[in-house]
Write a structure and sequence with these properties.
It is a single chain. A nine-stranded mixed beta sheet has the order 8-10-9-11-12-13-14-16-15, with helices on both faces. It has a five-stranded parallel beta sheet with strand order 4-5-6-3-7, covered by helices on one side. It has a two-stranded antiparallel ribbon with strand order 1-2. The protein folds into two domains: about 120 residues, P-loop containing nucleotide triphosphate hydrolases (Rossmann fold, 3-Layer(aba) Sandwich); about 270 residues, no CATH class. About 40% of the residues lie in helices and about 20% in strands. Helix 3 packs across helix 4 and helix 12 crosses helix 13.
Length: about 425
């Protein structure tokens, strides 16, 4: 597995891309809100980056959150800024009093850092109470560039944006163990941990805490079945009506549960790219899990060799690539601008990254292949996309499991996964 870990305060720490974004946000806003799934490393990142400048208090403990709820002014007086308020979703009314404090010293930057593992109620409270006063940042599990010790390396089509370091090469066999294990920091930093037991515990905690806190799930077992059925459809077109019918639940229930999984950063839904063409494009979205380890656990994949040879190999690798693109944007404080492209006749490009330059909108197409040998026919979908959309299509990439960057015809490059 690719991993370069630095030791900080006797604990394993993997440098994160978001560190640079966090410092920039602290210099520009009175408050910063950091959200993301449990165990993504939010607290570790903040304690490392702000240990010498900010106090810290967690509202995870029952007595602490009760003190924040019953006497918010007294609580904030006991924990004055600059301060990190961890898991603040447990006392959302506290945000009103934080707003008062911010407004009393509006010109002072970076005094309040708020975190939460839940996004539905929390961000609603932030947008209503702290609008214009807070920078919203999101942290997902580790990206490839973070795991390989180069967190600020740009994506291949952004070479002019920052220093472009040469990433380590990796054989195809080296990719599958970390895909099955997943990218949560603890699993990467502690290779002796049993990933099956870790994910089992993680999902139990997620279901018992985040899901029950955010919404009333009448039948928790049915929700678990929904999550597993969704995992089997990762990287596929999502027929939510068919899924609901298969599980015997209402379509509106399926929609609500999917929104819950999105809001707690377990899945991301990709929409098809629409262009002004005289051709009918597929309008059905695709769903991806944000961590391949979670996905493998849910579908019962435990062995890397089975994952590589099994029917979900392509979906697993495509999920990893989409998750990497998502992390690349979020960890730099940017809104992901990701799509896929598929015609009614089945011609498809797995992912489109929308960017802009002096010519306007540009679409970077990516195809994902599980092979270690690149060939020009892999770029057929990208060629078709270029023929339909013309100059708005930027040079594209076929992400594969080989170890060399190779040309695959006009404006298409075979890109090793390690370089993504």
């Amino acid at each position: 597995m690719w991993s370069r870990i630095t030791k900080v305060n006797a604990a394993a720490y993997i440098p994160r891309t978001l560190e640079t974004t966090l410092r920039r946000a602290l210099a520009q806003f009175p408050a910063v809100m950091l959200t993301g799934p449990r165990q993504a490393g939010k607290t570790t990142l903040l304690r490392r980056a702000l240990d010498e400048t900010h106090g810290y208090v967690s509202l995870d403990a029952m007595d602490v959150r009760e003190a924040a709820r019953t006497d918010p002014r007294g609580f904030l007086a006991a924990h004055p800024p600059p301060v990190i308020l961890d898991e603040v979703q447990h006392a959302p009314a506290l945000l009103t009093y934080v707003k008062e404090c911010i407004d009393g010293e509006r010109d002072r930057r970076g005094r309040w850092v708020l975190t939460g593992s839940q996004n539905l109620l929390l961000v609603k409270g932030v947008t209503e109470t702290l609008a214009g006063r807070v920078a919203l940042l999101r942290l997902l599990p580790l990206s490839l560039r973070e795991m390989t010790g180069d967190p600020d390396r740009p994506l291949p089509w952004e070479a002019g944006r920052a220093r472009l370091a040469a990433p380590p090469s990796a054989s195809p066999a080296a990719s599958w163990p970390w895909l099955v294990r997943g990218c949560y920091p603890q699993l990467v930093a502690e290779p002796d941990l049993d990933p099956h037991l870790w994910h089992q515990s993680y999902l139990g905690t997620y279901l018992e805490r985040d899901v029950r806190d955010l919404t009333q799930i009448g039948d928790l077992l049915q929700f678990q079945l929904f999550v597993r059925a969704l995992a089997a459809r990762s990287a596929q077109l999502l027929n939510l009506s068919g899924l609901a019918r298969e599980l015997g639940i209402a379509v509106n229930t399926a929609k609500r549960w999917l929104s819950l999984l999105e809001a707690t950063y377990q899945v991301v839904v990709l929409r098809p790219y629409h262009a002004s063409l005289g051709k009918r494009l597929v309008k059905t979205p695709k769903v991806y899990f944000t961590d391949t380890g979670t996905l493998c656990h849910l579908v019962g994949l435990r062995d890397p060799d089975h994952a590589a040879a099994g029917p979900m190999a392509g979906a697993l690798l495509e999920t990893a690539v989409v998750a990497e693109l998502l992390k690349a944007a979020l960890h730099r404080g940017e809104q992901p601008d990701l799509y896929f492209w598929r015609t009614a006749t089945g011609v498809e490009v797995d992912a489109l990254v929308r960017t802009y330059d002096e010519r306007g909108e540009r679409l970077v197409p990516l195809e994902v292949k599980t092979t270690a040998t690149a060939s020009a026919r892999m770029a057929a979908g990208i060629a078709r996309l270029g023929g339909d959309l013309g100059e708005r299509v930027a040079p594209g990439y076929v992400v594969y499991l080989g170890d060399r960057r190779l040309p695959l015809g006009q404006n298409v490059t075979a890109l090793p996964l390690a370089e993504l």
